[in-house]
Amino acid sequence: MAKQFIKGNEAVVKGAILAGCQAYYGYPITPASEIAEAAAYYLPLLGRTFLQAESEIGAINMVYGAASAGIRVMTASSSPGISLKQEGISYAAGAELSCVVVDITRGGPGLGNIAPEQSDYNQMVKGGGHGNYKLIVLAPNCAQEMCDLTMHAFDLADRYRTPVVVMADGFVGQMMEPVEFPAPVVDLPPKPWATAGTPETYKNLITSIDLEPDDLERHINHLYAKYAEIEANEVRYEEYMVDDADLVCIGFGVVSRILQSGIERVRAEGKKVGLLRPITLWPFPEKRLARLADEGKKLLVMEMNKGMMVDDVRLAVQHRVPVGFYGRVGGNVPSGREVYDQIMLHLEAV
Amino acid sequence: MAETIFRKAKSFYDVYERKAGANKDVTHYCPGCGHGILHKLIAEAMDDFDLKEHTVLISPVGCSVFAYYYFDCGNIQAAHGRAPAVATGVKRTNPDSVVISYQGDGDLAGIGGNEILQAANRGERISVFFVNNAIYGMTGGQMAPTTLLGMRTTTSPHGRSIGNEGYPLHMCELISTLEAPVYVERVSLTDAKHIMQARRAVRKALKAQMEGKGFTFVEALSACPTNWKVPTREANRWIVEMMEPVFPIKVFKDEIETREVVPREKKTYTPHEIVETLDLPTGDETVSFVRPPNALKDPEIKVAGFGGQGVLLLGLALAQAGMRAGYHVTWLPSYGPEMRGGTANCHVRIAEGRIGSPLVHESDVLIAFNGPSLDKFASLVKPGGLILYDSSLIDRTIERTDVKALGLPFTELADKELGNGRASNFVAMGAFIVASRGVFDEHVVKSILPLVIKRKNLIELNERAVAAGMRIAREALGS
Known about the structure:
The structure holds two protein chains of two kinds. By secondary structure, chain A is of the alpha/beta class.
């Protein structure tokens, strides 16, 4: 199929519809509003549901209801809106509901600003809601992946009965690039566990409550067995010139793109530098990082936050190799020059 | 003489297996509590209307959090106050199911105040059963939004006061002011007569939902002897004497008979229809183009000017043309308040290989449509780079000698020669084609005009603008 030049945020919606998403419940917020707007335009044309909820809280709970009823459903927001959704996300994780939450991240804390930051890493990857749970977090870095990973998110959500997050910074959401859209998914997995208001499903119960400590412990252990399976099967990352590298840069989202440009520049000067881009922020490519540490490669983590993913990198390599960090915040994006300087600085520190 | 058999409704489980502990044949409710009565009225209605296999009941947080222990139907347990939002998601997914949001006063009128009002206002075709006992039960007797003035609770130990906690909230009164709800009634679960009245209300609400009429709301005044600290046998009198004067029992709204049912259409769409509806391209749309060897290589472009000058559109057109010509491309706009504040800029990259950063800090090409943009970005053009600017709006010379600067009257030309100053951006496009030594050509641009120019009658104008821009750029460059 030919490529379409399209905004990342809009690619999310087209991908979702192709993946069989039947409903979107959301609340407007910059820089994620194009998702709601595209959903509002396209979904009703296909007899599907778009509803602008009264609040982020309302939206995530409508998602909770629709997911309980057994359809593919999504919501999207940006950082402060996601903070509000965390209650519902925790409930959905506890009740094992399949749904997709897209987060187009912006600056914080508080109202912050609408420029791109990656400071939602902790609230998404570490679980911003209460309780023992994890979310699969996918981090696209281009418009094509905004489509592809949104579609993948629906598959993962169904396969593991869990909320899946697609987290992209404002630039990846706002950027336009050519995207090749796949054919619509026709066969969706059945959900015999849903409460669909039918004779086949009326015995079902969707809940996150287990009054007895032993029951709740059993349930949480069940969740964590599922998470172990996800960790074993679903790690995704991309590498660029890592094999002979003395220094491996690590970044996700738009930062990985800037790092790629920086690496091309220092490679041209004969320096051996590579890039590892986690695509799944959880499950995290910790085994791959441990192997890089085994090989004695130095690591440089770059993020648009004050250092969040870098904690996971340090845990993965157990301080066996130096892990440098460079972060910009407030909506500032590292320039090519900054990236170049940081790479040179950390190379020289060998 | 007919024999009357008293038995549990079939829409209740025989044994409450989901209930923890040993006593699986009795409910967890306290003696004298109204929940059991309302549960029974709902379950009997579900029996009589043959609903249980089609019903999804949403349990709230509060004493009725465990309603799913008892009701033999689809059950969902929701977060505190959110049941109407959850019910919205369920009902909209399966409009043929019967969806019940069962809520207490803290859940519905306190933490979930917005969810209930908005669901009511949207006219969600659900039934809400609201148990008002003027107190928080599950958490042990704290003040509720419906707690009476002067009433002592564990969090209003000196009595609810107007000055501190304000007046009790009247939910039926509030909801019945909205246009969408079809049926709003307050009942009281006290004596047989009132319970029969409540029974009729429950059945009416469910029936209306089955008929697709709209949002139905039944509030039931209900006893909580445990937390009121009133003997069970006096609790009903307490409802009558204390609650009913504040919360009058009556039908607040009933438009069931007159409300029209909006018919629903259920249609499935083929993959082909989905692709078509999503406006996805179906054929290969690249045009044949061979890049001249000396054309600008992998240009990083910044386009800047006032909002309304077509700055973002020119950027889009540059990227789309690049894509059609077979390059990798990215386009990144400035967004947000900056956009609303009147200035606009965008970053465009056109490259033969995969593009790393979509950001253009230092550009190879700057196309500037106003003075402030030129001032802001001219210093960020790489040495040897190109600056194209609108000399009809920018009255200055470029100080830098290490870049090629070309001031051309984009706006003036568009205005005078083409009769539409707004085509200045495509005049600049023409100038770019020439000055970049043919990163792509006018045929490529022509092929993408229908994609970027929404109004068909302007396509031809912009084609002429491109040609005019090429002409003046050639004249200026002497090529």
